[in-house]
Design goal:
five-stranded mixed beta sheet; Chitinase A, domain 3; alpha/beta; 30% strand; single chain; 7 strands; 4 helices
């Protein structure tokens, strides 16, 4: 996998593609990052997704320029979460983290025009992995 390549579920890729279609008033740095993410996309079935990939609904630990380690839930919006519990993908940092694999970094320019190196330190919870675990435990024993 290349440094820029991102892994997406079909659902996450469709969300990004829709965002691009509705982005005429977007910040140019955000729009550049969105286009980069779509160009570098590797879409996989949820059943073959590694639990170390950040997807929508994943709780991730990340850092900016090697500092500011934080944990947030990647979301489409912040409406259904308590204040500062989520990081919407409508933000540059949220978008940057979506589709990354643990320990992968991505350079992005924030809305102030300052370049940042965003690192996905860990995927603490991924909904697709949780669903796979429940399905596996529900199988009858032979």
């Amino acid at each position: 996998m290349s440094h820029e390549e991102c892994i997406f579920t079909e659902r996450d890729f469709i969300v990004l593609d829709t965002m691009l279609s509705n982005s005429e008033d977007a910040n140019p740095y955000f729009l550049d990052l969105l286009r980069r993410k779509i160009r570098s996309a590797h879409v996989v079935a949820e059943s073959s997704l590694l639990p170390t990939v950040a997807t929508l609904g994943s709780r991730v630990a990340y850092s900016i320029d090697g500092t500011c380690a934080e944990s947030r839930v990647l979301s489409q919006s912040s409406e259904h979460y308590p204040v500062s519990a989520c990081l919407p993908i409508s933000s540059i940092r949220g978008l940057a983290l979506l589709g990354l694999t643990e320990n992968q970094t991505l350079s992005a320019t924030n809305i102030s025009g300052v370049a940042e190196v965003i690192t996905l330190n860990a995927v603490l919870y991924q909904p697709e992995a949780a669903i796979s675990q429940v399905a596996a435990s529900a199988r009858p024993l032979d």
